[in-house]
Amino acid sequence: MIRRTALRAIAGVAVTAALALPLTQGAQAATPETAATIAATINAEDNTPFRWMELDGLQSDFRSMCPAGHCAGFRSLVLTDDVMQQEFEGHKFFVYAPATGEYGFFPDSDIVVRTVDHPSQVRLVDTGLIRSHPCVEVRYGDPDRPDRARVVATATTLM
Fold first, then answer.
1. Is residue 153 classed exposed, middle or buried when 0-12, 13-18 and 19+ CB atoms within 10 A define those classes?
2. Is the Cβ–Cβ distance between 66 and 34 less than 8 Å?
3. What is d(CA 155, CA 56) in angstroms, rounded to the nearest whole number?
4. CB–CB of 111/159 below 8 Å?
5. Separation between Cα atoms, residue 48 and residue 43, nearest integer Å
6. Is the pTM above the cut of 0.70?
7. Distance CA 86, CA 140 (A)
8. Which interval of the chain is the signal sequence (predicted)?
9. Separation of alpha carbons 147 and 68, rounded Å
């Protein structure tokens, strides 16, 4: 009886350790040092999907994420420091393609949103909207009245 109880206890510990091993390995992979290594190995100019664009009020930014212990890097467009220092109060930022009247989205953690409140939340990723329109604008104002919104930044594809 004691042998059977001891065997069950040892089996329980072994199963717990086997299940916890991948989780601890994932936690090690998600360290800031790993993310910094990824960023350091990527040449900023060669890998930017925005190199064929004229940017006004926007700049390319590299970010790395480590969801579930698997690190990945991506490029996006963010507002320049000059634009970030401007006064913004009472309205929303949104992405708009004036040629067709289409709207874009901003990534907000793991979801996408149509509008954001703060200039630091403005982040454009390489999407179909940016690739399929000659000009995409970040506007500030009422998204339901884009013609009255203030244009704060533009990304124009050079053709």
1. buried
2. yes
3. 6
4. no
5. 9
6. no
7. 12
8. 1-29
9. 42
Query: C-alpha distances in angstroms, 140 versus 33, 35, 63, 107?
Result: 37, 33, 24, 17
Residue appearing with tokens 């040629």 = 99
Q: Which residue has the tokens 């969801």?
A: 67
Buried b (16+ CB within 10 A) or exposed e, 41-62: eeeeeeebbbeebeeebbebbe
Chain segment 48-106, per-residue pLDDT in tens: 778 788 999 999 998 887 777 788 888 889 999 999 999 998 899 999 999 999 999 99
Residue type, 118: H
Asked if 152 and 140 touch (Cβ cutoff 8 Å), the reply is yes
